[in-house]
Amino acid sequence: MLLALLVCPLVALVSSLQVGVLKVCPHRCSCHDFSHFVDCKGRALSLVPGRIPYGTWMLDLRSNNLTEIPAASFSGLWSLRIILLSCNQLELLHVGAFEGLGFLERLDLNRNRLKHLPEDFSNGLQHLTELKLSHNRIEYLHYNSMRYLEKLEKLDLSGNQIGSMEKGVFRGLTKLRNLLLKDNSLTVIENGFFFMLQSLEALHLERNNISSIQLEAFASLRSLSLLGLNGNRLSHLTFKIFLNIQTQGTHLQLADNQWICDCDLQRVFGKVLSVRHLHVDDYSNITCSDPGSLAGSLLVAVDSQLCMAETATVLVITATVLVTVIAAVVMAERNRKKNGNQERSESDSPFDSQEK
User: Fold this and answer.
1) What's the pLDDT score for residue 343?
2) CB atoms inside a 10 Å sphere around CB 98
């Protein structure tokens, strides 16, 4: 009985405290107790609000006027799984901005004004599975900025101004399955950019300024099923670039480039199309940019003609060589016969003089 008298008031006290916590809500935000969702979307906030309930699971801060995320802005909110920060005016993420969010799974920073990520950006975000950074102003990816995102499965960096990356910048993302780098300013895809991404299934590089791809650039991508390269500045390719992709099956998208339609290109595509695990999804839409006489023509419509001139040239050279060889043989035979006749006539001369 005594124990019951002690326990019951304690339970009542804890319950009252829990109710108090749930009723705490940031100014101008809406809190949904049962779903643990705090809705601060479109409230003209210029600062990250305080008094966020400790049990919050999802925090929506989209479409506000935030310009920075100070250090430890979400300190103590260990229950947070989703933070939505898209469509703000964020220019700066301070060191330790996301400190203490060890269980965060999804972070949306789309459509802000970020120019770079701090070196410690990934510190403490080891459970993050989805990171959205599209349509910012990022120009460069630092070697350590994504080092600890070991559980990340989707990374969206599309619509930035990325012109270069340090080799190995994605080295810690061993579980990454989807990488979006389309609509950036990349010009060269170097060996080592995608090192260690053995789980990567989709690589989107559409609409960059890519004109060159190094031979081993995709060699480590053993799970790649989709490679988007359409809308770049590729004019020629080396077959080995794609031959090095050792997967069960990879779909390639290569239209809307600046293809120079010649015999070399025809041979490369002929080889690619003959490889069982490679599939060029948009081959029927690939058009020629050069030479001028073929500009705008579909490659599939002219590919059988591209090696005809070269074949004709080879045939002419072969015929010329053959005629030259035959002529040389004929001349050699004539000279041999002529020399043989001269030798016989010289050998007959002494006998003629003796008979006289």
Assistant:
1) 58
2) 25
Distance separating alpha carbons of residues 102 and 79, to the nearest angstrom: 9
Contacts of 187 (CB under 8 A, 6+ apart): 163, 208, 209, 210, 211, 212, 233
Token readout for 32 is: 């949904």
Q: Are 76 and 21 in contact (CB under 8 A)?
A: no
**What is the mean pLDDT, run by run of 10 residues, along the chain of 356 residues?**
42 38 80 90 97 95 98 95 99 94 97 95 95 98 92 99 93 97 98 94 98 96 98 96 94 98 94 95 96 92 73 50 69 69 58 47
pLDDT of residue 284: 95
pLDDT of residue 5: 42
Q: How far is CA 16 from the centre of its chain?
A: 53
As a whole number of angstroms, the distance between CA 66 and CA 46 comes to 5
What are the structure tokens assigned to 295, written together?
A: 């500009």
pLDDT of residue 314: 46
Question: Which residue bears the tokens 């301070």?
Answer: 94
- CA-closest candidate to residue 106, choices 85, 89, 129: 129
**286-333, pLDDT tens digit by residue?**
999 999 999 999 998 987 777 865 544 444 455 555 666 776 777 776
**Cis peptide before 291, with omega less than 30 degrees from 0?**
yes
**How far is the C-alpha of 9 from the C-alpha of 200, rounded, in Å?**
56
* Closest to 34 measured CA to CA, from 52, 20, 47, 22: 22
Q: Which residues of 154-182 are buried (b: 16+ CB within 10 A; e: fewer)?
A: bbbbbbbebeebeeebbbbbeebbbbbbb
| Stated pTM of the model | 0.81
Pair of tokens at residue 255: 């239209």
CA distance 130 to 152: 6
Q: Are the beta carbons of 224 and 200 closer than 8 angstroms?
A: yes
> Which CA distances in Å does 228 have to 91, 183, 189, 221, 320?
30, 12, 13, 14, 46
Identify the burial level of 4 via C-beta atoms within 10 angstroms of its C-beta, where 0-12 means exposed, 13-18 middle and 19 or more buried: exposed
Distance CA(193)–CA(106), nearest Å, equals: 24
What is the Cα–Cα distance from 176 to 200, expressed in whole angstroms?
Answer: 5
